[in-house]
From TrEMBL:
It comes from Naasia aerilata. Gene3D superfamilies: alpha/beta hydrolase (3.40.50.1820). Residues 11-230 form the AB hydrolase-1 domain. InterPro entries: AB_hydrolase_1, AB_hydrolase_fold, Sec-Metab_Biosynth_Hydrolase. This is Esterase.
Length: 242
């Protein structure tokens, strides 16, 4: 299947935990200026702070991305930030013939039977944004006090089942989908060492037949701390798939 021009791709943007489509607001102009058509998503349960998300799970978020893929006419690129990277890999497993490239922003693909992060504390079926003290300083790099306040004000509790449900992947054609990691908190040397050691954190990515890792040093939320640079890194990855 022809994937179209790299200068005119449909790009589906998948937010990480606690975020909706608006979290990509400073990144999308960079992609649009490069000629791409951008589709930032708000995943089920993240529509508002008052939404009922108690029954929403990992598969529901994957289904929402698959529906976005199916609504578009040709091949698409998926960009997933943090937990959204796991959702992107689930969608690539469901539609390996439609996904031209998956770009993982400080994240990576999930493995069969894995959970995104089942160590987060759930309250009444949802996971509020934790206190900043629960994050590593490397995660928070680049987030000024003002950006932290803005992030917390906009944060929406994540459906608890999305964080803890086990992923079920069925199509090994997903390993043929070009995959790029834009790493913000881990240097390439460390990343490469983990792959050489067969570390489970990178095991699924290591199985990708066409893969690349690039660095964008900042904290875990580059869409806030370095949005223009993140957009440029995504554009560069789309122009030169591994």
């Amino acid at each position: 299947m022809a994937i179209g021009s790299v200068r005119d791709m449909d790009v589906v943007l998948i937010p990480g935990f606690w975020l909706d489509a608006s979290s990509w607001a400073q990144v999308t102009p960079v992609l649009e200026e490069a000629g791409h058509t951008v589709h930032p998503l708000t995943l089920p349960g993240l529509e508002s702070k008052d939404a009922n998300r108690s029954e929403i799970g990992f598969a529901d978020h994957v289904s929402a991305v698959v529906a976005a893929i199916d609504a578009l006419p040709g091949a698409v690129a998926l960009v997933g930030h943090s937990g959204g990277g796991s959702i992107a890999s689930g969608a690539a497993d469901a539609r390996p013939d439609r996904v031209a490239h998956v770009i993982y922003v400080d994240s990576g693909p999930i493995s069969e039977g894995g959970a995104i992060n089942d160590g987060l504390t759930a309250v009444d079926g949802e996971v509020p944004l934790p206190d900043w003290s629960e994050f590593d300083e490397s995660d928070l790099a680049g987030l000024t006090d003002e950006l932290r306040d803005e992030f917390r004000a906009r944060a929406i509790p994540e459906p608890a089942r999305v964080t803890s449900d086990r992923a079920h992947l069925t199509d090994e054609r997903r390993y043929r989908v070009p995959s790029t990691v834009i790493s913000c908190t881990m240097p390439q040397q460390v990343f490469d060492q983990l792959i050489e050691q067969g570390h489970p954190y990178v095991a699924e990515f290591a199985r990708m037949e066409r893969r690349r890792m690039v660095e964008l040093p900042t904290g875990h939320w580059p869409q806030f701390s370095r949005p223009q640079e993140l957009g440029a890194a995504i554009v560069a990855a789309l122009a030169d798939a591994p």
